[in-house]
Amino acid sequence: MAIPNAYAQYNNSKILTASPAELTLMLYDGAIKFCNIAIIGIEKKDIEKAHNNIVRVQRIIEEFRSTLDRKYPVSEDFDRVYTYLLQRLFEANIHKDKEILEEVLVHLRSMRDTWAEVMKAGRTKGAV
Question: What's this model's pTM, rounded to 2 decimal places?
Answer without folding.
Answer: 0.85
